[in-house]
Amino acid sequence: MRNRTSSKPDFPIADLPQHEINDILRRADEHLEQHPLLHAPSLLSAPITDLSWKLQNLYFMQAPLFVVKGNGLREQIKRILNLPIRVFGYKQIRFNHELLELVGLMLVQLQEIRLQAESSIHINQVGEQRQDTLQMSSRPHDSSGDI
Fold this sequence. Notes:
Layout: H1 18-33, H2 41-44, H3 48-61, H4 73-88, H5 90-138
Helix pairs in contact: 3-5
């Protein structure tokens, strides 16, 4: 068992020279830049409105019931067929309704995740621009080329 009262840290990163720390951080940045999730525009450009439209279509289907849209003979037959389905298929109808509500909530969450991802991308871009500006301003000016 280790003595927790020792003043030596578990990870002696402070003992490393600054150039080694910078090298480790640079390698980590390069590894992260190669990660496929960071460069997945399909996740951010997925048409959420298409999903909303499809969810709305599912809602109007009213499965397992027949959708009645008029007053013709065909629609009257559909109304008659819907009666036993409503009586004996109540659990299925309730399940479908709850499932549609769940998918709707998931769609809202997906939209929020997309907004957060877009916001973090913007924040990262601003941070990179500031870092570039700081690096440019901290470089020593070379006056040997001046006339």
